[in-house]
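Deliverable D4.2, example record:
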Amino acid sequence: MTGVLVRPARPAELAVALRGVLGDDALRAGLGIAGRDRAVSRFDRARIADALTVVYGELVGEPAAEPAEEDDPEDRTPVGAAG
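Output generated by the structure prediction step:
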Protein backbone atom coordinates (compact mmCIF):
# COMPACT_ATOMS: atom_id res chain seq x y z
CA MET A 1 0.00 0.00 0.00
CA THR A 2 1.42 3.37 -1.02
CA GLY A 3 -1.31 5.66 0.23
CA VAL A 4 -4.78 6.11 1.63
CA LEU A 5 -7.75 6.73 -0.65
CA VAL A 6 -10.27 9.39 0.30
CA ARG A 7 -13.29 10.36 -1.80
CA PRO A 8 -13.14 13.84 -3.34
CA ALA A 9 -14.83 16.76 -1.56
CA ARG A 10 -14.98 14.89 1.77
CA PRO A 11 -12.90 16.98 4.20
CA ALA A 12 -14.07 15.01 7.24
CA GLU A 13 -12.89 11.76 5.66
CA LEU A 14 -9.59 13.38 4.75
CA ALA A 15 -9.14 14.54 8.36
CA VAL A 16 -9.81 11.01 9.65
CA ALA A 17 -7.35 9.52 7.14
CA LEU A 18 -4.67 12.09 8.02
CA ARG A 19 -5.10 11.49 11.75
CA GLY A 20 -4.75 7.77 11.12
CA VAL A 21 -1.51 8.18 9.18
CA LEU A 22 -0.06 10.79 11.54
CA GLY A 23 -0.86 8.65 14.57
CA ASP A 24 0.69 5.43 13.29
CA ASP A 25 4.49 5.38 13.04
CA ALA A 26 4.57 1.93 11.41
CA LEU A 27 1.99 2.92 8.80
CA ARG A 28 3.92 6.07 7.92
CA ALA A 29 7.16 4.13 7.58
CA GLY A 30 5.46 1.46 5.48
CA LEU A 31 3.89 4.04 3.18
CA GLY A 32 7.25 5.72 2.73
CA ILE A 33 9.05 2.47 1.90
CA ALA A 34 6.31 1.31 -0.48
CA GLY A 35 6.16 4.71 -2.18
CA ARG A 36 9.91 4.78 -2.75
CA ASP A 37 9.93 1.21 -4.08
CA ARG A 38 7.11 2.05 -6.48
CA ALA A 39 8.85 5.21 -7.71
CA VAL A 40 12.18 3.41 -8.21
CA SER A 41 10.53 0.59 -10.17
CA ARG A 42 8.46 2.89 -12.40
CA PHE A 43 10.61 5.94 -12.97
CA ASP A 44 14.17 4.75 -13.59
CA ARG A 45 16.26 6.36 -16.34
CA ALA A 46 15.91 3.51 -18.80
CA ARG A 47 12.14 3.39 -18.52
CA ILE A 48 11.83 7.18 -18.89
CA ALA A 49 14.17 7.10 -21.91
CA ASP A 50 12.12 4.32 -23.52
CA ALA A 51 8.87 6.22 -22.94
CA LEU A 52 10.31 9.45 -24.35
CA THR A 53 11.64 7.61 -27.39
CA VAL A 54 8.12 6.37 -28.12
CA VAL A 55 6.61 9.84 -27.66
CA TYR A 56 9.24 11.53 -29.83
CA GLY A 57 8.84 8.83 -32.46
CA GLU A 58 5.10 9.40 -32.56
CA LEU A 59 5.69 13.14 -32.96
CA VAL A 60 7.86 12.61 -36.04
CA GLY A 61 5.71 9.82 -37.46
CA GLU A 62 7.93 6.83 -36.74
CA PRO A 63 6.37 3.53 -35.66
CA ALA A 64 6.80 2.62 -32.00
CA ALA A 65 9.72 0.33 -31.26
CA GLU A 66 9.31 -2.87 -29.33
CA PRO A 67 9.56 -2.26 -25.56
CA ALA A 68 12.87 -3.14 -23.94
CA GLU A 69 13.08 -6.43 -22.09
CA GLU A 70 12.24 -6.01 -18.40
CA ASP A 71 15.19 -6.09 -16.04
CA ASP A 72 15.43 -6.40 -12.31
CA PRO A 73 14.07 -3.21 -10.65
CA GLU A 74 16.79 -3.50 -8.01
CA ASP A 75 19.43 -2.94 -10.73
CA ARG A 76 17.84 0.28 -11.96
CA THR A 77 19.03 3.78 -11.17
CA PRO A 78 16.20 6.11 -10.14
CA VAL A 79 15.69 9.30 -12.13
CA GLY A 80 17.51 12.13 -10.41
CA ALA A 81 19.88 9.84 -8.55
CA ALA A 82 23.52 10.80 -8.45
CA GLY A 83 25.83 8.68 -10.48
